[in-house]
Predict the 3D structure of the following.
Amino acid sequence: MNKQQLVIFDTTLRDGEQSPGASMTKEEKVRIAKILEKMRVDVIEAGFAIASPGDFEAIKAVAETVKDSTICSLARANKKDIERAGEALKPANSSRIHTFIATSPIHMEYKLRMTPDQVVDYAVSAVKHARNYTDNVEFSCEDASRTEFEFMCRIVEAAINAGANTINIPDTVGYGEPGQFGETVGRLIENVPNSDKAIFSVHCHNDLGLAVANSLSAVMHGARQVECTINGLGERAGNASLEEIVMAVKTRHDLFPVETSVQSEHIVPASRLVSTITGFPVQPNKAIVGANAFAHEAGIHQDGVLKRRETYEIMRAQDVGWHANKLVLGKHSGRAAFKARLEALGIKFEDDDALNAAFARFKELADKKHEIFDEDLQALVSDVSASTAPEKYGLVSLEAISKTGDKPQASLVIAVDGEDHAVSSDGDGPVDAAFRALEELAQSGAKLKLYSVNAITSGTDSQGEVTVRLEREGIIVNGSGADTDIVVASVKAYINALNILESGMVKAHPQLEGV
């Protein structure tokens, strides 16, 4: 079977970031983009340039850093969006503008308040304008799965004639069903006269748990690009998972007429990095990247795997990056060895101050843990990034008391704009007491929406990675902290979230519409 290339379009940095609380800094986006490049992802959608100055700068930074993948910016079908995207993408070796407009009757009538003729005109004008900045233009029919077929044929033909060389058919609201969705993509390719002049793509959401199934069905019917995210991150229930798409195609090479360029051994490290940065832990039973994905407990399964792996495993754990990467460094190790290991993980520092701060944290951690893993380093770097952000609040000291029969208490010394303040409170547990004490001091008015604890590695000396999500006046932020003491990690995470709220660097997602 002659295999065709399946383009992998990763939108973790754009659609994935639209998960409530998953906003990433410019530096974090660059870190993720670098591992995506290392994976040999074809297209990286780095953001939505018009959304905010921060998004613009992040796209520009990714475009300056990544050389081997095409860098893409989303843009609505209007000149301002497209011009902003074109400006952000200037440094890229290879760039793409991804423009879209809604095409379903309900969106055209109630959201856009446009006639079908107007929508076609906007689409054509947008594609033509985007061609002034790059010859790589993608056009999306937002809410395609609820769009009338004849109208979709018409607008797709017009977009291709205007210069779009990728046509994306998004299941924006997760409404599609694999048989029907795949068949629609196939019919579209058959019925659009100039379909041979473009690659057809799909972007599926997971509202009914069918994003991967819908995407793969479309591939079987002629789609040659899939838009997906690491860990299935994304709005609402998320997007199709990159790791599931790639490994399905690779494992069932007998079935799928396509192949990808993705180096699958980087999948697990990428998954862990995205999880660490966003604070969204991966569920243990998640396919490919979950902690239990290659675990066998049933005796019959264990016996079979021991005799021959293929009895119960359809792919090798090593092929997706499951292996114990131990950093053979300790408290006596030098800065050069530490820096070299971080660079091997794709982590570089802009200046010596940042490297020195990370190295100091490493030394502290090496005094507490006998074995340091790559996951510890990823968390350590994220923790340093959080602590070096603009700070109103800083942890000076913490004492927590939890005793059977007594009310738990926490006493903290917190630096506020450089001046130390002592505060204490009781609570239902030491973490609750510490949070109450912090709020008594900060009076932030924020509501705690999520408190999540995740063990970074195995063992009782594992670092605990804590995510705290706060909401205030419609703004949602994530704070993160890591420490071998879970109460300390929790306080770090809460302080990090407070600092983000106070910094003014928070962005509310302005993209009220999207693919």
